Amino acid sequence: MARIRKKGAGWTVRLRYGESQDSWFDLNVDGSAPDVAEDRRVRLQRMANLLKKAGRAALSRDILTDAALERSEKGFRLIEAGIEAFTPGESEGPQTFRQVAEYFSKGHFQDEYPDAVKKRKDPRSLALSAKRLEAFYPELGPMLFSEIDKGAVERAKRRIPRVGPNTRRAYLQELRRILQIAAEPLGLIPHALAIAIPPKAPRKQFVFLYPENEHQLISSGRPPFARRFLYAYLSRTGRRIAEVLLGTWGHVDLKEGIVRVEASWTKTGVAQFYQLDGDVLEALRLRHASLQPKSEQRVFVSASGRPMNRRSVLRWMISDLKAVELDRARPELLEAGEGAQALRVHDLGRGTFITLARAMGRPDRWIMDRTGHDSVQSLELYDRVTRSARERNLGWLAPMGVALGMRGAVSIGPVWAEGHCYGMGQLWSNEPEKQGISRGKAVTDSVLWERHRTSITEENRQNTDAREGVSPPSEALGPPSTPNVGQSSGPADPGATDPVETALAFAITEATRAGRFDVVLACTNELAARRRLKAAEPPSELERARAKREKGEGK
Length: 555
Prior knowledge:
5% strand; mainly alpha; hpI Integrase, Chain A; 3-stranded antiparallel beta sheet; 6 strands; 555 residues
């Protein structure tokens, strides 16, 4: 039943007072001020509760009538102060359901009664509790706990909005928690009313993007580059969307590849750091070189330069999946089935990263260091889809910069995923077009280096791709001799001292220009084998003597 309603040009409120009496009282409040009317109603009900608690129920109706007709805020406060003075000691501490709930949602009880009220790890969970408890205020808000019976609780349950079974369960848990706090430690009632909590509904199976799906999404030119850049970052780091969108360039160490996450952004309330893989770091360096942003500017912004928000990202993701026709290739991504849910932004990033990384055999602790999970049990939720990904041998995602088509990108993916990145393995085929890979893509790390080296010119530095908004980096990210370009912290000497290696490198370049990819494959394998052998063997006495002589120490 409503406790407040319009009456002519004003308001009338229903108050419970005396010995279980209910009456309507007219407020002297303008009809265009509903917030003021609701505030007066709550405060009037508090006055009624104080009078009853002090044994002055007989005076309640007259006092409440006078208070309701008081128009000025100053006069209303004087009446409140008079009642509190008239009922000494009764107004100390929270008394009504709403007062206790608000006190709890502000974190006061967990500080005052740490043994009885568990401290929340995530400060945002208190805000979520406050939002859920607000649903019960229309029915239980002004009531003393001694007045709350089973009938009132059942009426309050009907105030819960239409939500999923597990969310409704969370509402009931919040209601039960406030009733328990009222009994212990506050002692406002001898014992809390029993509230049945339904069992937790089975978790719906989530979906994730296969490497080929993810490549189709981010390599297509249809979604704007800023959105594709965000999707690629999420799926290669596994971070929560809220944390990623809040990050600024000042939180990214572009030299060491480490990202800082503020404590206020995380669910655990603890600051975190995570390491980027080489291809992700390379993409961020290229993006930074193009935009030249200030350290306080957000890393992920829309095409217009405005910060992104979570709701917009979800809407964009659904639209972009349809734009690249993934809704046809995998209808389950957008259509929730029985026991399964459609793809969320959380699944696109966090679900895809954890599933594929575990399928690739990465240790759980390695994954937790990057995702920010604080328990291995959280990763066990991905066991079923991980086994499926491992059985299908899905591999890892394509190198970020190359997949996005960023000018100057040369990384062939993380070292731990070498040979398993989408697109890199298929590129060894003699007929790459059948694999869905354009011959315009580089075939080997040596060819990638050659493309990267020739593309860094003054013309490219000044005339960047307007659509992608990226430009070549100011320095080379790594030579062809590096096993994973972009992973090392500093570039090595790209020139080969071995004449055989020099000849092989020249042959690779010429064969690539001529489109002879069979020759490129043979030369690259020979070059890689020679370099692995050279790295594994210790230098001979002759080589050591030659090195000393060149340094002037052998004379």
